[in-house]
Design goal:
By secondary structure, the protein is mainly alpha-helical. It has 2 domains: 55 residues, no CATH class; 206 residues, no CATH class. Helix content is 67%, strand content 0%. The two termini are 23 Å apart.
Length: 278
């Protein structure tokens, strides 16, 4: 570092994260090398870095100011989408049975068991997503640290439940056709493991709030795609499986939302590389 004030400022900005401190020091050096501090002035280093250089440098690691009001239109569209998803738990999904009925083990023929409860519960992840989108629209931030811990707990429990639901298919105990078994295992485990890999590898480039949304998207998609495949051929009128029809429409924009969140992390890297070469 070039001065003690700059070093102290970087320590504050680093918030105990050595990677952030090192990144801040690098931005300081780059700013000084390009002669950005006013010559002969006594202005602090923070006045040089607080601007575009620092914001661009930590865009993948800091507080992500665009989580809140900066993307109002996107949050409004997502809220509209998840409001529809919030209705699905109470719509008949198959055989005139809704996810809410499945959670309460009210299945035709008194056949309700742990499998139905676990397959019905993840549909209620729509409500935490609605809460997140409402905060994004009407609050200064998408979520708090404590709130994110609770949401990650819900997502983790849902993913764990979905893995248990997949177990009968893995052990050839589900009684489904071979193509259904293949689709269920490919979609369920594929979505979970692919999202986990991206979140792990890009954890320093995705904001905490966006990572939380991606986790909830993953948990919801892994379960709903399983249900769409398993109950795709269920008999009954359209009104007796309206939840299935609505979910078939919703699954595509939710999958696009998840893909968009992951693509943003790569886009930020490309932006930083471009700005560093200018």
């Amino acid at each position: 570092m070039h001065s003690r004030p700059a070093a102290r400022w970087c320590e504050r900005q680093g918030r105990g994260n050595p990677a952030r401190v090192e990144l801040c020091e690098q931005v300081c050096r780059n700013a000084l090398e390009h002669g950005r501090p006013a010559r002969g002035s006594k202005s602090s280093q923070s006045e040089v870095i607080v601007g575009a250089d620092w914001r661009a440098a930590v865009n993948g690691q800091a507080d992500w100011p665009q989580e809140g009001h900066g993307r109002t239109w996107a949050n409004a569209c997502a809220l509209f989408l998840w409001l529809f998803a919030g209705v699905v738990p109470f719509l008949p999904f198959a055989l005139n049975t809704s996810p809410w009925d499945a959670v309460r083990l009210r299945v035709p023929g008194n056949q309700g068991n742990w499998w139905h409860a676990l397959v019905g519960a993840p549909f209620f992840l729509a409500f935490p997503m609605i809460w997140l989108r409402l905060r994004s629209l009407f609050a200064g931030q998408s979520s708090t640290a404590a709130g994110r811990r609770f949401l990650w707990s819900f997502a983790g429990l849902s993913i764990g439940g979905t893995i248990l639901v997949e177990t009968p298919f893995l052990l050839h105990l589900a009684g489904t056709s071979q193509w259904q078994r293949l689709f269920v295992l490919s979609l369920g485990f594929g979505i979970i493991f692919a999202s986990a890999a991206v979140l792990l590898l890009r954890r320093r480039r995705i904001s905490p709030a966006w990572a939380c949304i991606a986790g909830l998207d993953t948990a919801y998609l892994a379960n709903v795609t399983l249900c769409l495949v398993v109950y795709g051929g269920a008999p009954g009128s359209l009104s007796s499986r309206s939840g299935w029809l609505v979910s078939m429409v919703l699954v595509w924009p939710i999958a696009l939302e998840l893909a968009w969140l992951f693509l943003q992390s790569f886009r930020e890297d490309a932006t930083r590389i471009k700005s560093s070469t200018v």
